[in-house]
Amino acid sequence: MALSTEDVRDIAKLAKLQINEDELDRYKQDLSRILEFVEQMNQADVENVEPMAHPQDMMQPLRVDEIAETNQREKFQQIAPATQDGLYLVPKVID
Amino acid sequence: MHKLTIAQQAKALAAKEFSSKELVSHYIQRIESHDEQLNSFVTFTPERAIENAKQADSRGAQGGILNGIPIALKDIFCTDGIKTTCASRMLDNFIAPYDATVVTKLNEAGAVSLGKTNMDEFAMGSSSESSYYGVVKNPWDTGRVPGGSSGGSAAAVAARLAPASMGTDTGGSIRQPAALCGITGLKPTYGRVSRYGMIAYASSLDQGGPFGISSEDCAYMLQAIAGHDARDSTSVDQAVPDYIAGLNESVKGLRIGLPEEFFQEGLDPGIAEKIRQACDVLKNLGCEIKPISLPNARLAIAAYYVIAPAECSSNLSRFDGVRYGYRCEKPKDLEDMYSRSRSEGLGEEVKRRIMVGAYALSAGYYDAYYLKAQKIRRLISEDYKAAFADVDAVLSPTTPTTAFKVNEKSDDPITMYLSDIYTIGVNLAGLPGISLPVGFEQDLPVGMQLVSNYFDEQTLLNLGHQYQQLTDHHLQMPKEFE
């Protein structure tokens, strides 16, 4: 699957990555190559095959809705880039 | 002291031949003298190690099965109060605020951590060349790679800078470095070892596991870390057998399958010869060797390089500069903060895989890529299931070549991906696999892989131990580091 430069820009946007103009071409080539490579998958007949998401087809185990953890916000926020009043600070979103 | 296995060290500590403090100090000295050549450690913690060694000494017989034994941890396991980087600029400033379950369990067993080892960034790679902290070298030839992504953990044990270490394996990242470094490495069954606190790459494939000099040492490590964890909802509530007692069971009559797809013309003749010799040893032990077929094995790499990137694109979306890790300077707005923090913090291979994953999951492509890959995954699992109706273990080389030179494969991602050919299907199926050293080809280690059925690590460790009673490849170490 050969990607276009526009495709790469779109994917980068989805993935919240910034690809510079001078890098676009290399990523386009690498990604196209990988996608071409995985097209080998089309050799298999998967018509009536169930997809497998978990090696033992396990389901999400459930537990009783009781509080089991303690709030450690202060400890976890010690390593944050910017906080205030227990909140994480980021550049202004709404004007 | 560094030539001793864990089993021997544990006996010596119990008999008070030396103390944990002496043992740990010995390794600290070795790391200080030798690691500059290898770059196997990201964060070396000698003071903590000495403190913990002293505590182990006072615990004495009251300590766990690894009491006083030094180990190293791949820098993907969160360690409370200690830098945990995943070899990425993104986490260069990340001091983990909690211990991974594996770390807690190793601490409870009395093990003493020497530090955090180097790896491919975010566990994505087969050579440990993509680390933010520089390339890891293979102690058998420092112009060559140790393999990846757990290269630091493998190199450290190979050079005896630690008797054992922890790695993680998503597509072969324990088994392949074990093979290239001439040591033993085990990937447990998916769900056998808790992933809580193990920074996620591909959640349906990742599994933490040990490196050791011997299969016996891997059994000690697995005994300490295996078990259900309520904090990891993919961990399985299955009883943990006594792996150590199981080592001495006879392997007579065990049936071992050789997949014909893995023994075709392309296989390096030197490696083929070592595998043949290993099969002879297994026959002498009374094992039956027979041909089997894994017809869909050839599609494993393609399926993996859709599934793993897809899962990684989801897992790595948490690295956004908001709550921890790298945040770019002077962000213009929120979008800029997200995309620049990620682009500046993450390396090339990581970004490549995130983008492949995002594409494979996007509207219009999900069926053609991700869903199809999950179906192939089912086919590969079914192949192994059919094989295990007939055999107790599946045998193959671990890698198609011995350790390649630094930079030899870093130009083309696909060339690197192809080195996972024997290991990758095992992760897709979720089965346990071990790599055992079986000799040398032009002075470089060769590894053999054994794969068994779900939760049957016992058979792998047992076969490994019995094989290692009759051979001494696992006791070899590079002369330069003796």
Q: Can you lay out the helices and strands and say which pair or pack?
A:
The complex is a heterodimer of chains A (95) and B (482).
Chain A: H1 5-14, H2 21-38, H3 73-77, E1 83-84, E2 87-88
Antiparallel strand pairs in A: 1-2
Helix pairs in contact in A: 1-2
Chain B: H1 6-14, H2 20-38, E1 41-44, H3 46-59, E2 70-74, H4 101-108, E3 112-117, H5 151-158, E4 164-169, H6 175-181, E5 184-187, E6 207-212, H7 215-225, H8 243-246, E7 255-259, H9 269-284, E8 288-292, H10 300-315, H11 334-345, H12 348-361, H13 367-388, E9 393-397, H14 413-417, H15 424-429, E10 433-441, E11 444-452, H16 457-470
Parallel strand pairs in B: 2-3, 2-4, 7-8, 7-9
Antiparallel strand pairs in B: 1-3, 4-6, 5-6, 5-10, 9-11, 10-11
What does this structure look like?
- The complex is a heterodimer of chains A (95) and B (482).
- Chain A is mainly α.
- Chain A has a domain at 5-42: Orthogonal Bundle (Histone, subunit A), CATH 1.10.20.
- Chain A contains three helices and two strands.
- A two-stranded antiparallel sheet of chain A has the order 1-2.
- In chain A, strand 1 (83-84) and strand 2 (87-88) form a beta hairpin.
- In chain A, helix 1 packs across helix 2 (21-38).
- The mean pLDDT of chain A is 92.
- By secondary structure, chain B is an alpha/beta fold.
- Chain B has a domain at 6-251 and 460-481: Amidase signature (AS) domain (Amidase signature (AS) enzymes), CATH 3.90.1300.10.
- Chain B has 16 helices and eleven strands.
- Chain B has helices at residues 6-14, 20-38, 46-59, 101-108, 151-158, 175-181, 215-225, 243-246, 269-284, 300-315, 334-345, 348-361, 367-388, 413-417, 424-429, 457-470; strands at residues 41-44, 70-74, 112-117, 164-169, 184-187, 207-212, 255-259, 288-292, 393-397, 433-441, 444-452.
- Chain B is globular.
- At the A-B interface, helix 1, helix 2 and helix 3 of A face helix 10, helix 11, helix 12, helix 13 and helix 14 of B.
